[in-house]
Amino acid sequence: MKGIIVPVDFSEQSENALKVAASLAKKHDAELFVLHMLELSPSIMSESGYIAQEQVVHLIKIGEKRFNDFLDKPYLKDIKIVPIIKHYKVFQEVDEIAKKHDADLIVMGSHGTDGLKEIFIGSNTERVVRSSEIPVLVIKGEIEQFDLSNFVFACDYKEESIPALKKAKQMAELFGADLKLVYINTPGDEFLSTEDISNRISKFLNLAKEGLNVEIYNDYSVEKGILNYSETVGADLIGIPTHGRRGLTHFFMGSIGEDVANHSNIPVITFKI
């Protein structure tokens, strides 16, 4: 792992993410790119008067000082940190920064009460997930020691999810975690017989050229199945694929991906397909 990006807004949630990112950076000797996006009023930025420009400079200086103070933490000692400040909230820039610095992972914190819509401020983080070409790790609450043993990956085992599986496998190897694949079978229109599920999974793994085992778990909904299965096996991380064009709202069907990230107390990592 070469580089990790952590967008921060000085909140408790973003510091939780920063701690996890710092832990990963130490373990893998990676650079830590800490990104802060200043919220400057469009009305101020559009003014050309001397007073308005003075206000802009003042706000930038305040933001930079607060950023520097935020990064003055004991757990960041001996880590190569690259602070990055952007003066606008253009979230596609996160992906551009990832490409520029050849970063491997984005780590973000979540309040957890309203899912990914509460990461950062407002509903902006779903835009990061939507545009990110690299995995996004969503952290819930404070984690004293980010050690991974069991990594659950769930998908619908259709061909488009193969790249996500490949990335999940690479991530599991990097973290030294046991990768557990699961298919959630639900009643109703989405129900599949044992034979149908086995055929779909077999075809998927043949196309992926992976000799992995997939467990079939029955539950009333995909979301509940992922969460219940993950708790049963003692998962430390849940991986799910996402459609970049629509963020998390079209994983499997409906808003299951967003619901999983919202209701899971376990960290969630997303892979764009």
Automatic annotation (TrEMBL):
Residues 2-140, 151-271 form the UspA domain. InterPro entries: Rossmann-like_a/b/a_fold, Universal_stress_UspA, UspA. It comes from the Bacteria. Gene3D superfamilies: HUPs. Belongs to the universal stress protein A family. This is Nucleotide-binding universal stress UspA family protein.
